[in-house]
Amino acid sequence: DREGRIHEIPWDGLEEGVYDTDTFTEGATNNPEHLEAFMVELREAMEVELPDGVAMLTVQIWQRELKRVDLDITWPEGGEEHTFKQHTYIHRSSAP
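Given the sequence above, the corresponding structure tokens read:
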């Protein structure tokens, strides 16, 4: 099992929704509190590592005590579009 920054977010802080680095606005009143810092860090990393790329984070309830978090990144390179996809499952009992 891999553990990353997303695993530091409390269960209730992993609010269902789709968030992307292209349209996410820091400080917006409707931002989920715990996901805001994560999205700001993700956007900053994208600006440094893949400046023309976009990262999309999708949080959904997968089962009663289980959430699925998908990270999809796309970026242009050499005239082609590249993608990276990662799926993480977080159980209520494993979240902080």
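The mean pLDDT is 91. Try to locate this feature in the token string yourself.
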